[in-house]
Amino acid sequence: GSGDGLDARPGRNEFVVGAGVFGPPLAFAECIKPISELARSFALGLDCANEFTGSAFAIYLICIAALALNLIFATFVTVVRRGKVKTFVNPEDAKAFKGEEVAADDAGVERSKAAHRNAIESFVPFAILGLLYVMAGGSETGAMAYFITFTVARWLHTFFYLAAMQPFRTLIFVVGLLVNIGLSVQVLLKGIKGMG
Questions:
Q1: Which of 24, 31, 77, 178 has the most crowded CB, counting CB atoms within 10 A?
Q2: What distance in Å separates the CA atoms of residue 13 and residue 6, rounded to the nearest whole number?
Q3: Which residues of 127-141 are buried (b: 16+ CB within 10 A; e: fewer)?
């Protein structure tokens, strides 16, 4: 009755959704069950269900987590740099944090934001291509070579970008780019082979 999606009756302390909107309350697990079943059916249809328990997938998960931490790190740097200069492009932020409203961010803040954007732009294709590589039966050796190389390269790129270190930033960016190109070729070849 409080509207927070919880049933206060004894024995009913499960998260529920849809109360009063889509009919009777549904247990959260029941809501996501069709999604999990669909994902498993999709994997079985591609004959790759076992690939999600192999070493290649484990390496993929570790690297994805490490890359997510890289994005969080870049965000944290932006927050710290903005807090030091106390300048904000949004008037409500300037008022809330007792800073100065400006038309453009400080150069250091802009640099950290650019590093963050660059990290996202590389992360998205890698996440997709890496998963497809695993689903297509990519080897553990290949996963280690591609995934670990990319992860280390992207962390280094973030540091080089924040520190304004050229030509190291560009060189390490090319390393990550080559990994994504290599994964694209591998996935393409496996797709062509599967059609034969």
A1: 77
A2: 7
A3: eebbbbbbbbebeee
Inter-residue contact 51 to 61 (CB < 8 Å): no
- Tens of pLDDT, residue by residue over 82-125, are 888 888 888 888 888 888 888 878 888 899 999 999 999 999 99
The length of the chain, given as a count of residues: 196
Whether pTM > 0.85 for this model: the answer is no
Pairing of strands 100-101, 26-27: unpaired
Q: How many CB atoms lie within 10 A of CB 107?
A: 10
Cα 120 to Cα 173: distance, rounded to the nearest angstrom: 13
Q: Name, in order, each residue with C-beta under 8 angstroms of 64's C-beta and a sequence gap of 6 or more.
A: 127, 130
177-125-40 Cα angle (round to 5): 140
Is residue 107 within 8 Å of residue 78, measured between CB atoms?
no
CA angle 109, 180, 65 (to 5 degrees): 60
- Strand, coil or helix: 174: helix
β-bridge mates for residue 26, sequence order: 17
